[in-house]
């Protein structure tokens, strides 16, 4: 059963993801970008940065990301990521033990 | 290979010999065998010699027997034998076997066009007394360095910037434009350097300096206009082999043994095999190996060495060694670097020199000239995918790129596609091939304090590169465009300098590069791109040609570019702390703030990420190495130069009374019919005493220079 993420939850996710991007990829330097900007096109993350992003999503939000989910539609903007994480969390809360259980062991993409 | 320096004074005063000695002292590592200074009123020339050809008579600065033309020259003219014969037929008389004398006579015969007759690698300055003109030249591809600066009525030049910095009037500051270029393109773009007021003579250029004029002219240009004669592949391969063989033969000319580097890859295997044909089993070879499997190529090196049967030695480079010598490497490179890869080659050159070897051949240039770089492959795939962006089959080709990068290989095809995806407007951009690399690197500029980032919205390194492109660049094949950018920018700016000339000459070792023989470069530029990269098979034609020279295994192995460990060299194995005090010190907020180049907070963020063991990405590694090397540079060249520079110990400046100074009319380096003069003063390496000059000032107070 899918749980629709509340606006508030989405906002919190987006804020948390922005904070990670700013800490991890922008090193605290103020760079204007919107939640719908492509992080790859803006060169905010590079090709290996995507791996850091995935590791962070899995660790911070206790989700497991399947290979087929590694697509820009899920990962390339703050809003896409927030929606993706919310969806994965909803799946996990909905009792799909497969996702929830695996997330504990699968802590690093690398 | 040598070090040169000099001055042209316009203020009516004579050149100062003490200052010339101080300048040449800074580059004594380039030429430890002798040093001499020549003063001819407004002009002074200085030379530090690494004796390779005609050790007894090739002394420099050298001048014609009538004293009219004098030269200080760093480099080698490989066709000096043939050119001497040509000049002799024109009536020139020679007194030495040295190539230096050949340049003097070629200048007299052909004037500034003399460079068109030279096959070699050079940086020189010729004082043409009758014209009252100083003529400087740098080789076609930028193998040897040449820097200039002008202030307060004096024009100075030198092989290395440190020689210019001993001139009191020259200010020592970093240049924001040069830094912006380097933190985008991996190097500054000549004439810009990372130092304010210091210019680099671009490769393939001459500079004429008179009292009233500075005329900088390009005398050579890479030209990728294709050969339209429809030659068969066999003709291309025959000529390639003939040129390579001759280029190597010429580069074996020396009065000292010539050795070869063996990296384990194809290019150095080919040069070593061709050198072996000339030198026989006396050929010595050298390799660098790593204690880290990700970078080590020793088993491939062994295959080549066993096949050739050379006397081989290797140096095992540990990650700790890289951090230990890194400040010395920066001192010699004189510019920030984004990778540590020059450090192992710096260490290898030390080993080479310790064996008594002065000259090595390497395979440098083959990847640029014959199409070996992964970047060329990447550009080809990106362009191919861009034609049908939705094709999953085409997107799958991204997985064939960079097989040696574990981080890249963990990438999903969809995300790799998103990263490398080309927008329609990118396809027509002349810089298409290099945009992913440069876009990634340019993000490092975020670390720069605003005052040190010279880029503005419409004024960026990309624009500066575009403005300097050859007129017919747009007509060239995209593969050739990529080759041009790599050969014109990264080759001279990093590969041949930080990783080449500077790393080798730090230990008085000269590198020679058969693949960069201009005849071969010009020939390869006209070759159809499909012979360089057939499908995704790089250096296709070279592999064909190499079949009779090197083991098949060397040809068949997948390409692994030379790399070295980066950020991890500077930290403990668990990343929790820096491995050396100087790393902690120079990256401390206090020193970062004092240098003023980078944002201290951003550097702190980066260090936190590294210490947490999370800085695995390419960009983080480049950021750390780039910031650290810049901080070292500031320490050595801006803040504490006095404690890092070398000074001539006692004799040359002190024991050189005016009466002993060389005067116009005295023969230098050439047998003369004049009465014997006191002659130039030579001094051995031991007369300089200043070791460990590169250790950064850790306490903030200056070291007392350990000079006498």
Describe this structure in words.
The complex is a heterodimer of chains A (110) and B (708). With 110 residues, chain A is mainly α. Chain A has a single domain (7-105), classed as ACP-like (Non-ribosomal Peptide Synthetase Peptidyl Carrier Protein, Chain A). Helices cover 55% and strands 0% of the residues of chain A. With 708 residues, chain B is α+β, with helices and mostly antiparallel strands. In chain B, the strands form three sheets. A six-stranded antiparallel β-sheet of chain B has the order 2-3-1-9-8-10. In chain B, a hairpin with a 4-residue loop joins strand 11 and strand 12 (214-218). In chain B, helix 5 packs across helix 17 (435-442). Chain B is globular and about 75 Å long. Chain B starts with a strand and ends in a 54-residue tail after the last helix. The interface between A and B is medium-sized, with 26 and 31 residues.
Short recap of the structure:
Chain A has five helices and no strands. Chain A has 110 residues and is mainly alpha-helical.
What distinguishing features does this structure have?
heterodimer; A: 110 residues; mainly alpha; B: 708 residues; alpha+beta; 4 domains; 6-stranded antiparallel beta sheet; 30 helices; 39% helix; globular
Mean pLDDT of chain A, nearest integer?
Answer: 82
Secondary-structure element sequence of chain A? HHHHH
- CATH classification class of chain A: Mainly Alpha
Distance between the termini of chain B: 27 Å
Q: What is the total tally of β strands of chain B?
A: 17
- Structural domain count of chain A: 1
How many H/I helical runs of chain A?
A: 5
Layout of secondary structure:
The complex is a heterodimer of chains A (about 110) and B (about 700).
Chain A: H1 7-24, H2 49-61, H3 72-75, H4 78-93, H5 97-105
Helix pairs in contact in A: 1-4, 4-5
Chain B: E1 2-9, H1 17-25, E2 34-40, E3 43-49, E4 62-63, E5 69-77, H2 80-89, H3 99-110, E6 120-128, E7 133-138, E8 147-151, E9 154-158, H4 161-164, H5 176-185, E10 199-200, E11 205-209, E12 214-218, H6 233-251, E13 258-261, H7 266-279, E14 284-290, H8 298-308, E15 311-317, H9 319-333, H10 342-354, E16 359-361, H11 366-370, H12 374-387, H13 392-395, H14 406-409, H15 413-420, H16 424-427, H17 435-442, H18 461-467, H19 478-495, H20 497-505, E17 510-512, H21 518-525, H22 529-532, H23 540-546, H24 552-556, H25 581-586, H26 589-595, H27 600-611, H28 618-639, H29 641-644, H30 651-654
Parallel strand pairs in B: 13-14, 13-16, 14-15, 16-17
Antiparallel strand pairs in B: 1-3, 1-9, 2-3, 4-5, 5-6, 6-7, 7-11, 8-9, 8-10, 11-12
Helix pairs in contact in B: 2-3, 5-17, 6-7, 6-21, 6-23, 9-10, 9-20, 9-28, 10-20, 12-19, 19-20, 26-27, 27-28
